[in-house]
Automatic annotation (TrEMBL):
Annotated source species: Ustilago trichophora
Protein name: Uncharacterized protein
Domain Putative 5'-nucleotidase C-terminal: 424-668
PROSITE patterns xref list: 5_NUCLEOTIDASE_1
Matching PANTHER family: 5'-NUCLEOTIDASE-RELATED, ADL392WP
Keyword check for Iron-sulfur: no
Region forming the signal peptide: 1-17
Species lineage: Eukaryota, Fungi, Dikarya, Basidiomycota, Ustilaginomycotina
Keywords: Signal
Length: 797
């Protein structure tokens, strides 16, 4: 299967590379011109070559002084990914916590391969598991060039089609589907036809079916997208494992997709027959996959209860997903449920100990579960493999995967540079109004400078511009802002609409109306559809909306940390200005009062004398779960759901009219509010959807690229600006990633010395030369072209 995937993806990459995409050098123009004198041309050449190298740079290593916790391996072990959302190239920014998650899909493939070997050598079994949401959120999955279906490349113009082939280069044992594979029928059909067959029954969709041949066919019928269940026997100890793949009760799937609730699924005849089969077979463990959070969804309890009616004490390992959190809970003494984060930040680990002892005793006796949340980076991978150096992690397959991703990135122009971000901007690490607040930047700078001017015909009119904070998905970190970053920061493609000539007496109330409307009245999905929920949390959840759940989790983690640290803070000299009553507050009191002094104190945790910033998980299982000891990421809950850019200057009277501009997915809500405030002014309430017009050519995905081209153009040049940022990262302890071995050079060296008996000094010399010859490309950007990365692919073996 791997050879087929490699050959197919290589062919795809060549086809993509031949598509008519402008080279980086033709677009990397600062301030809209390039001077033609020799010095300017030399500087420009350095910019181009530097960023061609940067496009293949891979972020930074985590801090070397961070303490690591070991994996507690069992007889049967699991490595788990979920909610990758296209982050196959890892996290490449220099600011914390990004270096902690700098591992890419090549690193993960190498880690998985070597962990299998390690487990086998120790007489253990290891399963690789993924629980869905493979795309939507990164350019390598979503940034394909536009094609018509009948054009060459049209097949690739489907979300996730190409990145699924990258994903398939890791040989997973068990997989299931996520809701992001189901919002669009074309995407789901692509998964069914081109992705599922690669897995030979290991891709399971126990409660998801697809209409065939298409939803509107007269002879339409529904079939499971994947297998209903799977049985496997582990290769080392021969454990008999029964598995299912389940999706939460998803209500917003595309036409032609049928999702059954887990509660109904377990009452189906096929499910009961599968339990009969497990009984006759003598099953040793159930491994149940689900794109479903391990806390808060009743579907898991329905599945566990049904299995327990037939198998009262058989171990059950549950691997969840969907809400992007790190979480674990013991549903009973023989059932652990684990959820492993998001965006390739986390590799989940679960170990089941004493399973072999139980098997030898006729499947009687208790097992012990262990878990870890592994920060996804080469240093941590190498540590858990007991390697001497992260450089020893590399494999030929991992290097080939990286080459393919770089080729796709270049073919799709994902490394196109828009500008250099001068500082970090956070979604919720600082309060709204702070100079580092992304929402403040959006309201105060981006909306007035990018959105307002985009409709040329209305420049003589005053305008109010409104946007929802949910349109922003990720922090904006200092450093190069590229085409790939626009898919990360704001993946939605909402257009802007406007209602012309609204009296200011109505318009001035709209922002407050939005902020006081029932929370979460509108659900947005990646394809831009909308659904009203009237504040119904269950409907929001059923529609796939999880952002409020993730925010509540972040808030809970932060305030639990504050509570746990209160005694240490009281003893700390820096907390001398705090009263004992402040330090002894409960989590609930801290959340209610949002004590600013305490928050300011803990914002200082990002320093060299503290552990680096990252996840500091408090879950429901025994002992610490994170493999890395971090200082927690600060969280500030004071974030508005909507922000606005007011007319400048403000209207002089309530009767003066303004244009009201907003993103299109808010349109029904805006019409409702416009009519509400119009009626309060004794108007007719006659605003309708038909009166709305498109505002320029701007979309939410283009906000930051256009702002970067206006405002993030460093006077000293991009190359020098990024080099300065890289030097600051180095001083903070974030070193460049170790360069992988030059496998071709090593093979040539081995071939040349075949039949000879080199001395130890010669061997050491050869190794040293190999290392030095490939080390320059992972350092800062040098104008010398000798350190540029070769475009020759490494061996794919």
């Amino acid at each position: 299967m791997l050879c087929t995937a490699l050959l197919g993806l290589a062919a795809t990459t060549l086809a993509l590379a031949s598509s008519p995409v402008e080279p980086l050098s033709s677009r990397l123009i600062f301030n809209n011109h390039v001077d033609t004198d020799a010095d300017s041309l030399a500087n420009y050449r350095a910019e181009v070559e530097g960023f061609q190298r940067w496009s293949r740079e891979r972020g930074r290593m985590p801090r070397s002084d961070d303490k690591l916790r070991e994996l507690d391996l069992g007889d049967l072990n699991v490595l788990h990914t979920t909610d990758v959302h296209g982050w196959f190239q890892g996290h490449r920014k220099l600011s914390p916590p990004e270096p902690s998650y700098s591992g890419d899909w090549g690193d993960w493939a190498s880690f998985a391969t070597k962990m299998r070997t390690k487990a086998r050598s120790e007489g253990r079994d290891l399963l690789l598991i993924d629980t869905g949401d493979l795309h939507d959120g990164n350019g390598i999955a979503d940034g394909f060039p536009p094609y018509n279906e009948d054009e060459p490349g049209g097949k690739e113009a489907v979300d996730g089609h190409v990145s699924n082939q990258i994903f398939s280069m890791v040989d997973y044992d068990l997989l299931t589907i996520g809701n992001h594979e189901l919002y669009n029928y074309t995407v789901a059909k692509d998964v069914y036809q081109n992705f599922v067959p690669q897995w030979g029954g290991r891709y399971m969709t126990s409660n998801v079916k697809i209409a065939l041949p298409h939803p509107d066919a007269p002879n339409v019928s529904y079939a499971p997208i994947g297998s209903l269940f799977n049985t496997l026997v582990t290769p080392v100890q021969g454990f008999k494992v029964m598995s299912y793949g389940i999706l939460f009760d998803f209500k917003l799937a595309a036409k032609g997709i049928a999702v059954q609730s887990p509660q109904e699924m377990v009452e189906e005849d096929w499910f009961n027959h599968s339990l009969d089969r497990a009984d006759k077979w003598g099953v040793d463990a159930f491994v149940v996959l689900g794109h479903m959070p391990v806390s808060g969804d009743p579907g898991w309890e329905a599945v566990r209860t049904k299995i327990r009616t037939r198998f009262p004490d058989t171990p059950i390992a549950i691997l969840g997903g969907h809400t992007h959190v790190r979480d674990c809970r013991m549903m009973d003494p023989q059932t652990m449920a684990l959820e492993s984060g998001r965006y390739m930040e986390t590799i989940g680990f679960m170990g089941i100990k004493d399973l072999q002892k139980r098997k030898r005793a006729g499947n009687r006796g208790k097992v012990k579960f262990t878990r870890r949340y592994i920060d996804s980076n080469p240093r941590n991978f190498a540590h858990h493999l007991k390697l001497r150096s992260p450089r020893d992690l590399a494999t030929k397959k991992g290097s080939f995967i990286r080459f393919i991703m770089d080729a796709i990135s270049e073919a799709w122009n994902l490394s196109r540079l828009h500008g250099v971000v001068p500082q970090d901007y956070y979604l919720d690490r600082v309060p709204y109004g702070d100079s580092s607040s992304l929402l403040s930047l959006l309201a105060d700078q981006v909306l007035p400078k990018v959105v307002r001017p985009s409709e040329k015909s209305r420049q003589d009119k005053k305008s109010l511009v409104l946007i929802n904070s949910g349109s922003q998905r990720f922090d904006v970190y200092s450093g190069p802002f590229t085409r790939n970053d626009q898919y990360i920061v704001s993946p939605f493609k909402d257009r802007f609409l406007y209602m012309a000539d609204v009296p200011w007496g109505i318009a001035k109330h709209l922002l407050n109306g939005l902020l006081t409307f029932k929370k979460g009245a509108v659900v947005e999905v990646m394809q831009g559809d909308t659904q009203y929920s009237d504040g119904d949390a269950l409907l929001r959840y059923g529609s796939g909306f999880i952002e409020d759940i993730f925010v509540r989790w972040q808030k809970s983690q932060w305030f639990k940390f504050l509570q746990a640290e209160r005694e240490a803070a009281a003893a700390d000299a820096q907390a001398g200005n705090m009263t004992s009553s402040t330090i002894n507050k409960s989590v609930e009191e801290l959340e209610a009062e949002e004590d600013e002094e305490l928050l300011k104190f803990f914002h200082k945790y990002d320093s060299l004398d503290k552990p680096s910033l990252g996840y500091r998980t408090i879950d429901q299982c025994a002992g610490p779960g994170d493999d890395t000891v971090h200082s927690p990421l600060p969280f500030n809950p004071n974030q508005p759901e909507y922000v606005a850019s007011n007319p400048d200057p403000l209207p002089e009277s309530d009767d003066e009219v303004v244009d009201v501009v907003f993103v299109d997915f808010m349109r029904k809500l805006m019409i409702e509010l416009l009519n509400r405030y119009d009626l309060q002014r004794n108007g007719t309430g006659g605003y309708t959807l038909e009166q709305l017009q498109t505002w320029g050519d701007i979309t939410t995905q283009l906000l930051y690229p256009r702002y970067a081209e206006l405002e993030w153009q460093p006077a000293e040049g991009a190359l020098k600006a990024v080099n300065a940022q890289a030097r600051r990262a180095g001083k903070m302890g974030y070193a460049p990633l170790d360069t992988e071995p030059d496998f071709d050079s090593e093979e040539r060296s081995q071939s040349e010395t075949a039949g000879k008996t080199p001395s130890s000094g010669t061997t050491a010399s050869t190794s040293s030369q190999s290392s030095s010859s490939t080390s320059s490309s992972s350092t800062s950007f040098k104008e010398d072209t000798s350190s540029s990365v070769s475009t020759t692919p490494p061996s794919s073996k």
